[in-house]
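Quick start: load a record and inspect it. Here is Helix-turn-helix domain-containing protein:
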Amino acid sequence: MSKTLHNGLQILELLTGHPQGMTLTEIADGIGVHRTVAHRLVRTLEAHHLCRRDRFKRISLGNGLVRLAEPVEQDLRTLARPILEELGDLAQATAHLVVRENERQVRMLMIVEPRQGRMHVSFRPGQIDPIDRGSAGLAMLAAEPPVPGEREEIALARKRGFAVSYGEIASSVIGVSAMVPGREVSIGLSLFEAPDEEALGRNVIEAAQRLGALLR
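Running the structure step on this input writes:
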């Protein structure tokens, strides 16, 4: 194994958990190398646009990672679209695909609006939301082991297999989401009314399982 490559990848993984950026010293301490070594690694990653420094010299992930991830996410979107279309039409609601951005945030990767239905929720693809707000993030947290002080909604989602939120991302909008097995991705619905949470939950679980089977 290449130790240099290993250290460089460690830096990227470390920065994933610090969206506000880190100092060079924090990075060196975080991966257990001398500051001079960390400096060379960061300069190399900067040259490939995999990390960047702001005007305060804090280092964060760079836009080059988006280019690298695009083929993977494109495949994900291609496989997910027909499943989201069917889910949205079934519930006559907006269906969404959400990915985990880092420890604190999730990103709306794909939105599919129902082809029928008088009213539906509209979101902007690429929207970033806190992981502890909204059904998509709650479903992801429910897939992890319980932690002290976690929200009751997370424990309930862990028990039911799907998460529900009310007005947390947008006022008056209900979210119902389930995790795609083996992935840090959720499939869900956004709607104005949820008269039968269990039925909606079964629908999103089935959709998530179908996508999971395609991604194996």
